[in-house]
Amino acid sequence: MYFADDKRVVMTLDAGGTNFVFSAIQGNKEIVEPVTLPSHSDDLDLCLQILIDGFHRIRQSCRQDPVAISFAFPGPADYKNGIIGDLPNLPAFRGGVALGPMLEEIYKMPVFINNDGNLFGLGESMAGLLPHVNKLLQKQQKQFKNLIGVTLGTGFGGSVILDGKMLVGDNSSAAEIWLLGNKKYSDSFIEESISIRAIKRVYAEQSGLDMDSIPEPRDIYKIGKGETPGHQQAALYAFTEFGGLLGDALANIVTIIDGIVVIGGGLAGAADLFLPFVVEAMNKPMKRLDDGEVPRLEMSCFNLEDAEQRNDFIHAFIKTIQVPRSEKTVEYDTHPRIGVGLSRLGTSRAVAVGAYSYALTRLES
What we know:
Helix content is about 35%, strand content about 20%. The protein is α/β, with parallel strands linked by helices. The chain has 2 domains: about 110 residues, 2-Layer Sandwich (Nucleotidyltransferase, domain 5); about 220 residues, ATPase, nucleotide binding domain (Nucleotidyltransferase, domain 5, 2-Layer Sandwich), CATH 3.30.420.40. A hairpin with a 2-residue loop joins strand 2 and strand 3. About 40% of the residues are buried.
């Protein structure tokens, strides 16, 4: 785990449309009591003052001087230069706000900003699911270096971590997976089917209820589990469709990235109702035009939250073969595979750890 023993302190922020949560991280651990303040997203001057006040309070709580500020902030944005663009959930920032340069001038330290999806994936690659998986595979001498992180909630966020490095892109727009094509609605984008609003819409369609009376996904989940009265089949259908379309989207990503997939966000709590269908979709064969089939992926996909599939995943498929024209033999793993699992840190902590790692990596580059 990189930076796990690092003594440097970085101030962090989890910026939402309603609240800003400020904290400080040292050695991948939170070292202060977080400070939560209202974002005042419709008033730029007040919002900026809240940011200044929040970091000021955290700095006062730190026993040693922080070396940087690093935090998640929604896009679109020019993250490299710390400029926030036209945000739907934070309307006061429209027109572009040089947030990073402002904070650097006030606090006299480097400021690093990225989106929560990217920082979530980075945190899980440093101290979450990726090292957890590699520890399971240690005896088999197989290790993964790449990770795809997805967050499921109001939207469909994503990140790509390649050998410990976050893929940002030339326009700070890499891993904007919410704009992938939608298998069910060919003229729409996938977030319309992978989000809170999607669960509610499909439940309404299947139950025949008006959208105004549809409960939140956590209640639809309880209905699906039979713990709360409601249209159970409609609830199960909503999560089944959700899982299938998520699996199709992930399969498209995995064909390029080839790595472990980690899932976080509020909807991850309902994973037992949709994760099996994610993996099923990723393993489902594709049709050929001559009526034949080809595998959906070059590798098999396993549900890491299922004990039986997890055991199959960590099993070594080693074959010993003869080197042609030699008496030597070599071994190789005959079964390419990836796993899909849930966050091991929790989404908020993964974002904070990711922000910490991102800052220290940038400071050392």
